[in-house]
Amino acid sequence: MIYIGLTGWGDHDSLYEGTRAADKLSTYAGYFPIVELDSSFYAVQPKRSMEKWAHETPDSFSFIVKAYQGMTGHQTGFAPFDDKESMFAAYIESLQPLGSKLAMVLCQFPPWFDCRKENVQWVRYVKEKLAGYPVALEFRHQSWFSGAMRERTIAFMEQEDFIHSICDEPQAGVGSIPTVLHPTNELKTLVRLHGRNTYGWNDTKDGKWREVRYLYRYNKEELEEWRKHVLTLHTQSKDIYVIFNNNSGGDAADNARQLIDMLGITYEGLAPRQLDLF
């Protein structure tokens, strides 16, 4: 199956005319069968929140849950936890309410997390702590896919049974990676479409990177390119999860719906949509 969705559900204004904030997830679930939960990156989510989100979505709905930033080296130390053991324990506990709705945990490592021995050891440690859960792996430092390291990285992900998070993003120096169309798990493959805004990718001044990094709208030719890629990947991996993350300008929802139409997909089991009387 090919599942298409977005990063988060709060910012996609084209879906929510007249919708209360409290109803956005259930409305979102009327359009898409999956969502990437990124709030879990900033803080390990309370179980009551996970329970609420699971309750608000149909039985067939799935969550891709982003790993907490302390797990992926985006921060120094493990605050607000005492140590790494308690951090992982709290994160795993937070996943429990999702049950079968958990599609995978996404471990996205930062642009400075380069390919060296101690970082490989940390990746193995993360996989060990998340044993029993499907784990997607996404690098941001180009060294993982440079030269001979490309094949070694792919082989490592296959041996460790990681789901490959295949990216479409600007080629903007060492802090970006190429699109490597190679599934590493026969059951699941993740595709994340970040847009191709080369200038915005590295523009971090004034702390406004969120406003520019993912400011991009895929055109018809680019979506056709990805339609073909997705179909090819689907011959090598049972389920393909496609997440549009190009939402700095609110383009993700429209692009995702375009790709669904181009692939001729009709999802069953979505949440019922609210219909206007007039």
Automatic annotation (TrEMBL):
InterPro entries: DUF72, UPF0759_sf
Pfam families documented for this protein: DUF72
Highest taxon listed in the record's lineage: Bacteria
Record-given protein name: DUF72 domain-containing protein
Lineage start: Bacteria, Bacillati, Bacillota, Bacilli, Bacillales
